[in-house]
Amino acid sequence: MKVLVTGGAGFIGSHTVDLLLKKGYKVKVLDLLQPRVHPYGKPKYLSSEVEFIQGDVSDKAVLEKAMEGVEGIFHLAAYQDYMTDFSNFIRVNTFSTALIFEIIVEKKLDIKKIVLASSQSIYGEGKYNCKTHGVQYPDSRIIKQLESSDWEIYCPVAGCKEYMKSVLIDEAVTNPFTAYGISKEALERLAVKLGKRYSIPTVSMRYSIVQGPRNSFFNAYSGVCRIFTLRLINNKPPVIYEDGKQLRDYVHVLDVARANVLAFESSQADYEAFNVGGEKGTDLLEYTKILISVLNKKIEPLIPGYYRYGDTRHTVSISEKLKKLSWKNEHSLEDIFRDYIKWVYEQPDLKDRYQEIEEVMKKQNVLRKATNLVKK
Ligand SMILES: NC(=O)c1ccc[n+]([C@@H]2O[C@H](COP(=O)([O-])OP(=O)(O)OC[C@H]3O[C@@H](n4cnc5c(N)ncnc54)[C@H](O)[C@@H]3O)[C@@H](O)[C@H]2O)c1
User: Fold this and answer.
1) Contact, 13 vs 34, CB < 8 A?
2) CATH assignment of 2-369, among 3.40.30.10, 3.40.50.720, 3.30.450.150, 3.30.70.270
3) The model's pTM
4) Phi, psi of 179 (to 5 degrees)
5) Which terminus, N or C, of the chain has the lesser number of Cβ atoms within 10 Å?
6) How would you label 159-196 residue by residue, b for 16+ Cβ within 10 Å and e otherwise?
7) For atom 7 of ligand 1, which residue has the closest CA?
8) What are the phi and psi torsion angles at 227 (to 5°)?
9) SS3 of residue 358 by DSSP
10) CA distances (Å), 71 to each of 25, 94, 193, 194, in order?
11) Residue 244: exposure state from Cβ atoms within 10 A (0-12, 13-18, ≥19)
12) Which atom of ligand 1 is nearest to the CA of 56?
């Protein structure tokens, strides 16, 4: 079977391509080689076995050409920065998904299945439990709260002043608050509704933080792992925001590639959405400690009281639904670091650029310093 992987030159895309080739699929890749992700052009790791088309997934003529002769699609190309050009998230992520269906219907293409990259960001601030009011899906924290280093989430029920406890996020409720998250929620809806209408099975994959080799040095997503690793390699302390107790889950890119192909091959996955997350939640202090120990450094992180406006507090997905399709995490956080660090050392430029990034974020007023510390 010949399949198309949009964004196939990227991090998750290229590992998915490799697995597909290994399994005997013929693979076409459509990728813009977005300069912010690929400043040196087409990456060397992209297999010579793929039929490569450089172009924009939201350009109908280009997409039409890419979809010629394929029976399956992995739609992984995306705009995914922390920028304020909100329309680009919709154009690249959502509009392109609608275009895929438009082309299928117009050209009467025989597409057997579409797997789409979604994201944990569609859960927004995540899922919490208030001991008085039960399960809540809160909005993001307000600046006034963050300014006083009051990091945890309050119950949103009027009059309730309780902090809530974060709980693992299942697939049931979405509540995105960024243009990126909204673009992904919308593409999921298009995929399910149009997929059902035209009998084209679709599956949406809601990845948590994916890490591992080939994660672009320049992509906003590679943030914490790249920045901390480069700081430490250059014998400088990583800078932790808030109090370092924020929880996240991290998943190895090879586990994600397996999840993508499994979803494509399993009819039980049709028209469903799946979390693809890490084995468990890890707070940033623990994450940094493990990274420091894998790198064998004796450096303590800095916690200067900065916060990034728009960051979520605790977001940890649970992937039980995907596990029912016989998927599991085969790689630990230590494996992620080992594989990532090995790859980092193969890169030409290991300069630590944290200071530059910090200045840009401060100028944009994204990175701020808390002032009035809450006594707890
Ligand atoms: N990496 C993560 O932690 C993570 C988490 C959640 C969701 N995702 C999603 O997974 C998918 C893959 O992400 P990734 O981490 O591999 O990112 P990546 O940036 O490494 O890969 C994305 C690829 O898409 C290409 N691309 C961007 N805009 C394009 C366009 N307009 N037309 C064609 N190609 C274009 C880029 O050149 C790049 O090669 C994305 O849809 C992303 O939103 C990633």
Assistant:
1) no
2) 3.40.50.720
3) 0.96
4) -60, -35
5) C
6) eeeeebebebbebeebbbbbbbbbbbbbbbebbbebbe
7) 119
8) -65, -45
9) helix
10) 11, 21, 20, 17
11) middle
12) 32
Tens of pLDDT along the chain (376 residues) come to 999 999 999 999 999 999 999 999 999 999 999 998 898 999 999 999 999 999 999 999 999 999 999 999 999 999 987 677 899 999 999 999 999 999 999 999 999 999 999 999 999 999 999 999 999 999 999 998 999 999 999 999 999 989 999 999 999 999 999 999 999 999 999 999 999 999 999 999 999 999 999 998 776 555 889 899 999 999 999 999 999 999 999 999 999 999 999 999 999 999 999 999 999 999 999 999 999 999 999 999 999 999 998 899 999 999 999 999 999 999 999 999 999 999 999 988 898 888 888 888 888 888 899 986 654 4
Residue 11 Cα to ligand 1 middle (Å): 7
Query: And the tokens for 308?
Result: 């990034």
- Is residue 169 in contact with ligand 1, taking CB distance under 6 Å? no
Domains of the chain, residue spans = 2-369
